[in-house]
Design goal:
Layout lengths: L1 H56 L9 E18 L1 H28 L3 H25 L5 E22 L3 E12 L4 E2 L2 H4 L3 H9 L10 H29 L1
Antiparallel strand pairs: 1-2, 2-3, 3-4
Helix pairs in contact: 2-3
Length: about 250
């Protein structure tokens, strides 16, 4: 009796341990599945963005055909060159004010000496020519007032390697590939030529160079053979039916 009771206690403890282990496994499964789901949501967000971009920019894009092959998110430093025209605007304003004063003074001085209508017209013509010459000289000098400025910006950049398909004549599909660069904070794509010199981007494209090697869809070849076969078989079938009708 004692042995049976002892065995029963051992069995109960064993069952309790199994229950604890089972509960732990369930909890871990929930945690990992939640983490996996979160990762999937992020990936789906970028996938939707790629699909929308392709719909707007890729000719004959097959809707929702994009697949993300690889993805990395890194904080990168983007440098953008722009022209600073603030000095040019200042100099242009000063030039216009100066020429306005000089034109007024030139015309007033000329009108003092003018005695006929012809003299007045001559003063106006000379003032216009003087203004034209001064503008041409200022235009040549204006280039030195434009400064090249490099703006730098830290961007949380999602680098994406994606495949997609194009559809032609509702039959033929062609596999394509593209690299996409997405500003995670601003929720917008960055033009590839703006980030092509960044080391992280060059490394990403080098790492996933094989993704760019796309193969033709074998279904295209099959459809082509069927069409060619039909072109050969249908005339023979028609010819046979005609021969039967004539005999």
């Amino acid at each position: 009796m004692d042995n049976n009771r002892k065995n029963g206690v051992i069995l109960m403890k064993f069952i309790q341990k199994l229950s604890v282990i089972g509960l732990s496994v369930c909890l871990l499964s929930i945690v990992f599945s939640s983490a996996s789901m979160a990762t999937k949501i992020v990936t789906e967000d970028h996938l939707n963005s790629v699909n929308n971009k392709n719909k707007n920019e890729v000719h004959n894009y097959k809707n929702d055909s994009a697949k993300i092959l690889a993805q990395e998110t890194k904080t990168v430093l983007i440098k953008t060159e722009r022209e600073d025209k603030s000095l040019l605007e200042q100099k242009t304003k000063e030039f216009e004010e100066k020429m306005k004063m000089e034109q007024i003074a030139f015309i007033e001085e000329g009108l003092k000496k003018a005695t006929t209508l012809q003299d007045v017209e001559k003063v106006k013509s000379e003032a216009a020519n003087l203004l034209k010459k001064e503008k041409e000289l200022f235009k040549k000098e204006s280039e030195k007032y434009v400064k090249k400025v490099i703006d730098t910006e830290k961007v949380n950049l999602a680098m994406i390697s994606s495949s997609y398909k194009t559809l032609i004549d509702d039959f033929f599909t062609f596999n394509k590939h593209g690299f996409y660069y997405y500003d995670v904070n601003k929720n917008e794509f960055i033009p590839n030529d703006k980030v092509k010199t960044i080391e992280e981007v060059k490394e990403f494209e080098k790492k996933h160079k094989e993704d760019t090697i796309v193969k033709d869809n074998p279904i295209n070849t099959l459809i082509l053979f069927i069409l060619l076969g039909s072109l050969c078989i249908i005339p023979l079938f028609i010819s046979k039916r005609q021969n039967e009708a004539w005999s």
